Amino acid sequence: MLPERLKSLRKEANLTQKEVAEKLGFDQKSYSFWENGKRNPKNVQQIADFFNVSTNYLLGNTDIKSKNLETDLNKTLDTVKSFDGKPITDSDRETIREILKRRQREREQKENK
Q1: H helices present in 13-89, as ranges
Q2: 102 vs 5, 84, 92, 96, CA distance in Å?
Q3: Domains plus CATH for the chain?
Q4: What's the rounded Cα separation, in Å, for the pair 29 and 105?
Q5: Residue 88 DSSP label
Q6: What is the pLDDT of residue 17?
């Protein structure tokens, strides 16, 4: 998933591999290896920051690009309480996260039609 996301984000930014590599402080060969899935970068956060996306998006853990949306979701889930006033379980957090991700994908599909 990472190679596809890197290539897609680079193309959306209208940049070459060399331009991205230079801006990140790497050589073009290293970046090419990442895009081609031959190696994984050790500095995923730096790359996510450069493209202004979350590391979860970059790694394929979510389809939500926005770092802010992911951060907001985490903050919200941290404050959610169950009906008895206790914090929700990790299992419930994941269920809520999956429902929201599915809903986001549905919205994006509607927008792309």
Answers
A1: 17-24, 28-35, 44-51, 55-58, 67-79
A2: 19, 27, 15, 10
A3: 2-58 (1.10.260.40), 67-111 (no CATH)
A4: 34
A5: P
A6: 93
- Which residues, in sequence order, are CB contacts of 96 under 8 Å at separation 6+? 77, 80, 88
User: So what's the pLDDT on residue 9?
Assistant: 94
> What's the predicted TM-score (pTM) here?
0.61
Supply the pLDDT for residue 77.
Answer: 78
d(CA 110, CA 90): 30
Higher pLDDT, 104 or 5: 5
In angstroms, the CA 2 to CA 7 distance is 9
Is residue 43 within 8 Å of 37, Cβ to Cβ? no
The values of phi and psi at residue 68, to 5°, are -65, -40
pLDDT beyond 70 at 35: yes
Hey, is 82 helix, strand or coil? coil
Q: What is the pLDDT of residue 111?
A: 60
- What is residue 42's DSSP assignment? S
